[in-house]
Specification:
Layout (H helix, E strand, L loop, with lengths): L13 E3 L2 E9 L2 E6 L10 E8 L5 H17 L3 E8 L8 E10 L2 E12 L2 E12 L4 H21 L6 H10 L3
Length: 176
């Protein structure tokens, strides 16, 4: 069963790139958030999606999830524009990044996905940006030229993500 609102309607669940994101939808281990002025999940411009993979608990399983998502993106017509892996260090586990563009008849969407370990399990944090209309490739190219590098950097440095434990606790509180 899906929830329409896990968080207070008047307060953002978190901030990304100085924009507050509000909870819009959750089901199982997937949670979607959009800015306050974009409540319609049928037509939004910016979305953050948090996916948790509770059975993937180590770096190898995280890499397998990232590869699985990559193959899923490709099978749905996604064009990979960038991939990167940040090697594991003694202080920090490995992380992975994928940027993909999806062209559809009435919009183009770019998805920036970060894969990391959190609370002892794997997760992905996906920032997506859409531009609606026909023949909008030039608009998306201009948006990417102006924003892709900064968006990737912000996503890979972002530390305000709600933890899987807190989202699970909130789901139980509202009994979804």
């Amino acid at each position: 069963m899906a929830s329409s609102c896990l968080y207070a309607a008047d307060q953002p669940a978190f901030t990304f790139r100085e924009i507050g994101y509000f909870h819009r939808w959750s089901q199982n281990d997937q949670h979607e958030f959009t800015p306050q002025d974009q409540p319609d999940l049928e037509k939004w411009s910016d979305m953050m999606t948090l996916n948790f993979y509770p059975d993937a608990r180590d770096g190898e399983a995280l890499a397998a999830k990232a590869n699985s998502v990559l193959e899923n993106y490709k099978s749905h017509g996604g064009k990979v524009v960038r991939m990167n892996s940040v090697p594991r260090t003694q202080e920090k586990p490995a992380e992975h990044f994928i940027a993909v563009i999806f062209g559809r008849p009435n919009f183009i969407e770019v998805a920036f996905a970060r894969f990391k370990l959190a609370d002892g399990a794997s997760c992905s944090i996906v920032y997506s940006h859409r531009i609606y209309g026909e023949k909008i490739g030039d608009q998306m190219s201009a948006w990417l030229d102006a924003n892709a590098e900064a968006t990737e950097k912000a996503l890979m440095q972002w530390s305000e993500m709600p933890s899987p434990v807190s989202l699970s606790r909130e789901q139980k509180r509202v009994k979804i």
